[in-house]
Design brief:
With 244 residues, this protein is of the alpha+beta class. The protein folds into 2 domains: 85 residues, Phosphorylase Kinase, domain 1; 144 residues, Aminoglycoside 3'-phosphotransferase, Chain: A, domain 2. A hairpin with a 2-residue loop joins β2 and β3. α3 runs antiparallel to α4 and α4 runs antiparallel to α5. The mean pLDDT is 95. This is Aminoglycoside phosphotransferase. It comes from Microbispora corallina.
């Protein structure tokens, strides 16, 4: 149906201008009943969108600053692949102190989502020690030697407790900071995994010791290589994963 679905949010709706939203979605600022909001149109399944919108409502109820899904006129949180969410103000992190605040916010996310079910169709890094595919990941498309290196990096996380991870938390564009709160936006990569993957931040803002940072950084590089394979960024990230 495309952007015609925006009419499900009422008569007083309009697209304003496109926003940066990656290659998987068409993201625009929109106006809904006079309020600035964000619309994201993509090809995710209803089950996938139900998982994400339920997560965002849960985090909002618990006091975490996130984009909150705005329901359609008949109460649905998405329609025909379109989700409309509140617009989140703020700037990008600039200092180590800013990134330390981001780390604290991520730890709160992880605490609030222990035991959360996996996003439909996704696999965690631990699952991929044995599974070959999961959503964007197809290990069969990667060089076998590269897969072995990735799995060796993920194996060092085995046995850790899992929770929801944001999935792209070190991206400047996904953090909105004000004086009194840190907000995380763009939850398109969120899924259940080991929390360390979220905490490889600039200036080691999460405060890992050397050994723990190495484990997290290697696992994170392996994940980004696998989920983006085989563009230039993925090739670069795989090169950072040590040989077995």
């Amino acid at each position: 149906m495309g952007w015609e679905a925006l009419g499900r949010w009422g008569d007083d709706v309009a697209r304003v201008e496109p926003l940066a939203g990656g290659v998987a979605n068409d993201v625009w600022s929109v106006r809904v009943n006079g309020r600035l909001a964000v619309g994201r149109l993509g090809a995710r399944s209803d089950a996938d969108l139900a998982w994400e919108t339920e997560l965002l409502h849960h985090l909002d109820r618990e006091g975490l600053a996130v984009p909150v899904p705005i329901p359609t006129t008949d109460g649905r949180l998405f329609a025909d692949g379109l989700v409309v969410m509140t617009y989140v103000e703020g700037g990008a992190p600039e200092t180590k102190a800013d990134w330390c605040r981001v780390a604290d916010t991520l730890r709160r996310l992880h605490h609030l989502t222990r035991g959360w079910p996996q996003r439909p169709g996704w696999r965690s890094s631990i699952d991929l020690l044995h599974a070959e595919t999961g959503t964007k990941i197809d290990l069969g498309a990667m060089p076998p030697e590269g897969v072995a290196r990735c799995r060796a990096a993920w194996a060092r996380l085995a046995g850790r407790r899992t929770c929801v991870v944001h999935g792209d938390s070190n991206n400047l564009g996904n953090v909105r900071i004000t004086a009194d709160r840190v907000a995380l936006i763009d939850w398109d990569e969120s899924h259940v995994d080991v929390p360390d993957l979220d905490l490889v931040l600039p200036d080691n803002a999460a405060g890992f010791d050397d050994g723990a940072y190495d484990i997290a950084a290697q696992a994170s590089a392996a994940w980004e290589a696998a989920v983006c394979w085989d563009d230039e960024f993925a090739v670069k990230r795989l090169a950072e994963v040590r040989a077995v």
